[in-house]
Amino acid sequence: MGQSSANDWKHSPVVQEQLRERGIGVSEIEAQLERFRTGFPRIQLVRPCTPGDGIRQLTPEEEDHFITRYEAAMAQGRAMKFVPASGAATRMFRDLQQILTHYDRYVDSIQNKPEAQWEESLQPLRRFVDNLHRFAFYEALQEVLRRAGQDLAAILRRKDYRTLLTYLLTEKGLNYGQLPKALILFHRANHRARTPIEEHLVEGRHHVRDAQGNVRLHFTVPVAYQESIARFVQQVQPEYEQDGVRFHIDYSTQNPALDLIAVDFHNRPIRDASGRLVFRPGGHGALLENLNALKGDIVFIKNIDNVVPDAFKDPVVRYKKVLGGILVAVQQQIFDFLNRLEAGQLVEADFVRIEQVLKEWMFEPFPDDYSSWSLEQRKAYLRQRLDRPLRVCGMVKNEGEPGGGPFWVKGRDGSLSLQIVEQAQVDTRDAEQQRIWEQSTHFNPTDLVCGVRNFKGQPFDLMRFRDPETGFITVKYLEGQEVRVMELPGLWNGSMAFWNSIFVEVPLETFNPVKTVFDLLRPRHLGATADTDDSAG
Description:
Elements: E1 2-3, H1 13-22, H2 26-38, E2 44-48, E3 50-51, E4 54-56, H3 60-75, E5 79-84, H4 94-101, H5 103-112, H6 123-130, H7 138-147, H8 152-157, H9 161-169, E6 187-189, E7 192-194, H10 196-207, E8 214-220, H11 226-240, E9 246-252, E10 260-261, E11 270-271, E12 279-280, H12 288-294, E13 298-302, H13 313-343, H14 348-362, H15 375-386, E14 390-397, E15 405-410, E16 416-421, H16 431-438, E17 442-443, E18 447-451, E19 472-478, E20 481-487, E21 500-505, H17 523-526
Parallel strand pairs: 3-4, 4-21, 5-8, 5-13, 8-9, 14-21
Antiparallel strand pairs: 1-11, 2-15, 6-7, 10-12, 13-18, 14-17, 14-18, 15-16, 19-20
Helix pairs in contact: 3-13, 10-11, 13-14
């Protein structure tokens, strides 16, 4: 890779052809470069959301009520799942990939030293080998080695970990270093291994199945693997289409026109060996376009890797339905108000009811002088406040997991709103902002349900409700080189900045992400009766 000077990329025929292929204009690249130079304004945190101040806690009786409300809407066919599944498993196996890449450096230690004396950078390999039989892909690895004339037990005896990692991570074997996370074998179930995409099929059977047995799911997938993912799902789908269930599954890919360039630390575009600009996906915020195109009604959003075996699905499904029921109940009150407003049928009691909804569920900070406003002023305020997409987001207690959380945020106009904020959006050099960030009590597990139609039953144009000023710039490694990259406003961050938000506390047991391969050693991923790795954390 190399760098461009400030403007020489504009005159390159290779770059010009590349931009034509991508459907991107020179002005768009110039705008990105300007954004790299100026940066994005930082989010202004006011305080963390806490129970009673931004986060609602429910009683078991309330939960049961909302489950009943949701199940009626589910039976009508209003619900579907939207699962971002574009990510590769690269991060899951990063430590092992680093060991394979630099294996010659480690050969002497591996062959001649006791494992307890291996250097720190080799400890992931030690842990992986010690627990290899516990992973759901163990048998698949055995089989791919057998077909290549290799024996896994013999490889382990002679400590030939280069061969082991090669057949795990590269296309000579399972290719887990490159495959989408959706196709990695996560769990053992019914005497075979199961991928996370299958776990989402099973979940969908329980919480988006209508009265006729229809289950609607949408997966966003990488372009290079769209056909193989669809083919895999088509193969396994009949196994899960029992008891009258029929899956309706479709796929989309991220629009390449939303990819963003990478730059060096002087904000000069990075170019590859052929002189082409280096583009990177614009983050999950690019999927707002995919969500918008669905024209759905009640849409559940959940990451591909946050799944558990069947033995642990009951609480997951329960709280999906709880969140869905809250959305249905609050949305119905909003729609009733807006319909009566449009029909000119409002009475004072209608105002009292909807103002209570805003206070109770969204902790609405009404203007200080709101009570003295005229009827027309209140109507105008409530119309613009209510006629927006609605999301209900589960929040778990913060146990130190990396990622964003719920905060009260001050907008550029001085208004307060409930937002999900990533640390990269915060100026942590500001002591006060850092203090507020560290006071956070809850974490965003990316477990939300969205109401994306208006009171007339028409789909919202979701692009109207995002804040383009909430993207962020981070540093990534690209071919061993540090580069600056830009991400679009996150799908559940700035892309939903002007939605109505309800944050609800849900149990930590509903959050079971797999960020590294060692997360699969946690008891909930191994299954209720499996032996566990005490060091899994």
